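Minutes, project check-in
Item: structure for the 794-residue chain
Input as provided by the requester:
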Amino acid sequence: MKFVLSFLLFVAASVSAFASVQIIYNPVLTAPAGQAIDVSAILTGANSSTQVRLYYRVKGTDIYSSVEMGGSASSISGEIPASSVDTVGVEFYIQAMVNGQPVASSPAVNPSISPYYVTVRRDNSKPTLTILSPMEGDTVETANPVITVSYENGDLGIDPTSVSVEIDGNKVKDKDHIQAFNTLMSYVPSTDLSQGGHTVEVFVKNNSGTYGSIKWSFTVDSTGGGIKSVSAYHWDGHAGYETLYGLVTQQPNNQNTPLPYRPYGANRVDVEVNARGATDTYSLKVFATDEDRTDQQATDRFTGMLQNEEGLVVLGDYSPTFSELSLYQPYNVRGVTLDFRDGDLNDGHYRFMAVGGQTYRAVAQGASAFTNGTSSATFAQNLYGTRWELGDKYFVWGINAVTVNDDPGSLPNAVIGTINPQYAAVGSTDVKIQVPQIYLKLTGELGADYDFNGGTLLSPNLGNAYTAALDWNILPWGTHLTFDWKDLGGSFGFLPGGFTTMGNPGLIPDYRGYEAGFSQAALDGQLSFTLNANEWRNNLQNLTDESTNENNFISGNITIAPKGLPFLNLGYSLLLQNNNLSTVVMDSSGTTISPVDNNTSNLSAMLGYTHALTEKMALTVNGGIQEMMLTDNLAAGLRNTQDLDNVSYLFSLLLTAGPSTLSAAGSMGYSDQYGFDSADGADGLTLPSGSGTNSTVSVSWMLAWIPSVLNSRLGYDLVTTDLSTGAAGSTPAAVNDDTRSTYSIGGDYTYAKVHLFSVSFGYSIVNTNDTIASVGNPDAASMFLSDASYRWTF
């Protein structure tokens, strides 16, 4: 269904009157705490040189992290990691860039200060564990049996680091022999178990912090010459195939926007095989699709891995992490990753990591782009890095070195010279100190980098940076205090400065400031309070112009969640921006800089309630309001931002009756833009006032005909947008009135608990009535969609 929704959004985009790059994203309104969020979107008007990044942050913090979004223009996607999905909420936006310059964003206006907001809910359900070996009551012929348990917790996910094992009521001491993964754990005792009966209990925690366990007994009888140790491997994994097809039954009248690549279908193969032994685990993962093209970055993914207590070796696509200032959560490195360890990482250990591979592949100039136009040439980009680390449970010290280099030989000779290759190198050292007696953790890192973009003697760039952070999580009191200071704009004085490492593309360069947070929980989590404050500025390179940008941010959040009663969540945030200019000036490069002085406030209130109607029936209702207000504080003649007031009302309903569910969600809102005439604008423009409304409604029904074997789904989705703008007493400058209706039906069939067949169909109707620059553009389009897949789990 996820791809179907993306295709429906494609239909809406295909009738747009704009020929420039646009981003249409698949809305995400709510998500469970501690579980990664998938964000998907489509592009129109893009070419192969267009790069798209997903920027995200925990609500109440000021600094965004980012990942690159992958896939084709008809279906790009990125993931907000589980570590950033907190109950205070998540904010994010999407930005498309060409040659490093932003060309589009979603939201389209002020995305970094008015991002999308996701309400995060806490799911108190417990993990479900299943015994794999030995089974309850079994008699095994070895004193070192392989103990394996699988577990799952729906969309919450499992924290593998929380797995613990008890035998006969005692925690096992050889923790290094526990291999824990996202869905399965295995343990082989390092010493022989005694003859006779034994009781085993396995504990695991989900990403929401709730524990689950399973307990059973078996008998050891190895006196009859049975096997003393187990060397066999346990196999698990899955294999799946998906095919998608879309038929435009009515083409849009407007042909200004070229259709994205492969708008009518795609095929995807997903395979994972794991061989888990007593000490070693071998894994193979393959994702292949006919959406992959040579004039865009790679879509296919291939990974082979060997992992044991001494480390891991990875061939293919992998995302290693060294430290914040060196190599941190890269989207993909296609090459070799080595991670060798001597000792338990949670105790005394040495560690050496090495990475070498390609982060981007070459795109030759003139290749066919998404719009069938000419794409820009880009070099293949290679990354190499090493990390050396030593430490114990109280202290960890690491040294990092990373280089990111363009490969000049990756493009034809005719292209080389028209663009300059880029080279970047960064070195850093980081320290982590933990004082568990008082629940305190201290971290810090110091780094320097060198960039060379070729061409002139002034091309080299040297910069330095440092970070220092405190994390005081007093668990018995429910108190959590964090403080993180960053200085990323340092220079050495004899060359242009600024820390701009490409080893961490999500790092904001030229930054100095702090991020602080405080939270307090009480009454067994029924009452919680969170306060965040951030202050930062840029332009730390001693430039003579006064274009320093300062940002001050503060937010507060209160959650009241009494057991058995409705929960209430209230939040408020305020962002102040100022570049310390009183007049329009020109910087040292000749760029005109206008004064900036504005503030953006966000107010949200969410109310929810879950009630058990019967033993097998429950009802969950959520509702809320969000308001965003942007105000330009500059005087007449200097204003450069339109004031904006945007209000949205959200609601959702979920009714569960055994394995069947009925869900409904929707939103409606309005916005007002307050314009100004040429006397108010620093650039002399006249910006008209305007107002608009929007609404979305979706209803879906899943019926389990035979529990866990056959399910069916029915869905309906309605989106309407009405926007009109125009100066007082004049003809409206632009009118937009869109309606999109989507009908869907689908179902799943499970055979023998390992074979899953799924099929879905959708039909989308789009009607628009746009007038841009007094050019009428009534339009309509419709599309039929299908998605069929098969998945075998073993």
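Outcome recorded: The two ends are 24 Å apart (CA to CA).
No further action items on this chain.
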